[in-house]
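dude i think i finally got it to work??
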Amino acid sequence: MIKLKNIDKVYRTDKIETLALKEIDLEVKKNEFLSIMGPSGCGKSTLLNIMGLLDQPSKGEIYIDAEQVMTFKDKKLAKLRNKKIGFIFQSFHLINDLSVVDNVEIPLLYRKMSGSERRRRALAALEKVGLNTRTKHFPNQLSGGQRQRVAIARAIVGEPEIILADEPTGNLDSNMGQEIIDILHNLHKNENTTIVMVTHDEHIAKQTERIIRLFDGAMVN
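look at this
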């Protein structure tokens, strides 16, 4: 589903050059659930952003569903992201002025779809994460765990084949964090979703099928 070949990522300023990722070779199989671990600053989020086509590598090749995407124009990349990839962030990234259901509808605004169909899909996604009674609430009326559920509903509303989750339990206590992981496991099992998750939590990581470890931008055993 995802293949990275000889990926480097270098950040440059006038005075300094920082190697964020070095010679990354990684294949993620369809319907795999894997986690990425490593110390702060080792390149985990950079790697996830490159997988999700939010950032471009300095060197290397990216394949999504066996298709080489490095030559795609911005518009084609955006369309591919919207169709195939759902993103979950540690800090939720919800819009406080929009209701829960309106937040979940956002990815569908970029598709040719009627308002009624957008609403139907958003409500169905919220039901999957157990928030069908909170559709008219606003983010600041919800707990952290509930807001992360909204973020998951937004990620899955477009029925993506891939979910990329960056520290989805990082702002939650252990009980709420486990509830979020259980939702991801259900998506993986019942929706055949491929999931790549960045986490600092060894207990959470061990619940996934495979752990990728990074240190100073390189993959280690």
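The mean pLDDT is 94.
im so relieved honestly
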